[in-house]
Structure prediction request, 229 residues.
Amino acid sequence: MSDIAPRDASGLSIAILGGTGDQGRGLAYRFARSGHHVLIGSRSASRGESSAAELAELPGADSGRLSGGDNASVSAAADVVIAAVPYDGHAATLESIRDAVAGKILVDCVNPLGFDKLGPYALAVPEGSAAEQAASLLPESRVVAAFHHISATLLADPDVAEINTDVMVLGEDREATDLVIALAGRIPGMRGIYAGRLRNAHQVEALTANLIAINRRYKAHAGVRVTDV
Prediction:
């Protein structure tokens, strides 16, 4: 594969697990606006269907591009699966879809964070990171870490035309990371950047705690930009 020619991700269908939460709904909305068929997953099929119907009412996201169902069903039907679930349900969710995502790209954007009176902080994950946990639980899938640092508020705002941020993409499979980089580029303003192997995912996930602190201090929706690339 050429390092210069970008992959064509325009025809991919995307399942988003946790598509009823803020981050998942925001990503679902942006990909639907970009012309993708998006399948919203939840533990309950009815919740996934309800979330898809609500998003279809937003500008640029018609009902023909959005559908919903339970996590296993949407994972089996989609080309690419994005896990955007809370960390406390991460392992159980992935175990429930192991067969459905065998051979597929699973994009993990889960940030294992805790919160106390001092603010957000990174949690220790036995495998090293949520992405490495995903790779351990899904040995037959192609796990990629990406989409960790994107403001859910901006994603869900129909008046925001572009999401001006870089997406750090990590993984062991070069073809899979290249495809996710191309997928990030489908959202206007967004750019995917290769950022290393999965063993480096911990600090990428943990950086979200810093961004939350920045947002609280400056009343912003901060993202990440990589210079000189």
